[in-house]
Amino acid sequence: MTAATSPALHRVLAPLVDPATFDFWVQKINPLWSWDRVLARVVELRREAEDAVSLVLQPNRHFRGFQPGQHLNVSAELQGRRTTRSYSFTRPPAADGQLHITVKHLECGKLSSHLCTQARVGDVLELSQAFGSMTLPNPAANDLCFLAAGSGITPLMALTRAWAQAGASSALSLLYWARTRAQMCFAEELQKLAQQWPQLQLQLFTTHEREGIPCEEHGLLSSELLQQHVPDLHQRRVLACGPGGFVQTARALCDKARSFMGEGFTAPALAPDTAGPATVEVTLTQSQRTVTVPTGMSLLEALESAGLNPAHGCRMGVCHTCTCTRTEGITQSLQTGALETETGMDVRLCVSRARTPLTLDL
Q1: Least enclosed by CB within 10 Å: which of 72, 153, 263, 291?
Q2: Distance (Å, rounded) from C-alpha 311 to C-alpha 140?
Q3: 10 Å Cβ neighbour count for 288?
Q4: What mean pLDDT is reported for the chain?
């Protein structure tokens, strides 16, 4: 559907229209028009930290909305190849429909490098619909504790802003870790919110810096630190986001909390699989190929190292874009360590590794 087609007309024409051909021609008139794809124009770029940029996006009519705490996939054509990554919304839904995301620049990240250094106002990106379950429909229902590390602050920033918009009627403790102060996003705004709302107890930690001077790693998440800054943790709903190891630690330390939700943007490291084979054969039924892949990495990374490009998005097990059916063989979850043996089971390639030869519906 475009600005020129109604939902009813869209349904009538659907059996007669090739979406790719339709998009090719209507985008010569307006680059945001499409048959059913979510497209968005970059309307603002803002430096958020030393290594992070916030983008404000104006989506077309196909975007169906989101809740604070959710993510979306962003795609762009880079050097003739479609590249997709997942980013969190950093502001609650707004009346103007604009979407705010913050992208951390990773040297090895093709899309993050493009968005942080080359994207310009007016560029058009393709988006997915929103996904993710780390949301708070009623942020005032219980006292809260947010634990954020690195770019894990992004979904929790949207939730903090939503908490403030809702009147800040519950207590909120926000603990945020970054390597250095220059890499800390939203610090000034968070400090202003803490001044405005006494219910917000804010603690900012730099793990590789003391008073602006580089130092050995310190101030990491621990039971002692939580007891010091959140002594009533058992009464709080805890939300944690950051690297997989950080979320794994938070989950263990918050076992007495009222509830816990966590999202890791990297899979926790598992011990090497010394009992199993170093490589296995993976048969791909749709593409009629068999490849040999290592068992010491995720299936997504292993298939990419074999020259394949499976559909993927977040690379952290949230968006399910890389999900396919495993018809034979055993995989292991990189999130829990559990072996997955059931025939015909869906497997998320980005957070699973092979333990035996596999057959995948790819």
Answers
A1: 291
A2: 38
A3: 7
A4: 89
Instruction: Tell me how far CA of residue 110 lies from CA of 82, 301, 347, in angstroms.
Output: 11, 15, 25
Task: Provide the pLDDT confidence category of residue 81 given band limits of 50, 70 and 90.
Answer: confident
* Coil, helix or strand at residue 155: helix
Of 255, 362, 236, 234, the C-alpha closest to 299 is: 362
- DSSP class of residue 89 equals B
Residues whose CB falls within 8 Å of the CB of residue 155, separated by 6 or more in sequence, listed in order: 68, 69, 70, 71, 88, 89, 90, 132, 134, 241, 263
Segment 126-173, tens digit of pLDDT: 999 999 989 998 877 789 999 999 999 999 999 999 999 999 989 999
Q: Side by side, which strands form the sheet with 124-127?
A: 81-88, 71-78, 124-127, 38-49, 52-59, 99-104
* Cα Rg of the chain (Å, integer): 22
Task: Write out the two tokens for 138.
Answer: 């009623």
- pTM listed for this prediction: 0.83
pLDDT-based confidence at residue 16 (cuts at 50, 70, 90): low
Give dist(CA 1, CA 49) in Å, integer: 37
**Span 247-262, pLDDT tens digits:** 999 999 999 999 999 9
340: tokens are 């997955």
Amino acid at 13: L
Three-class DSSP category at 142? coil
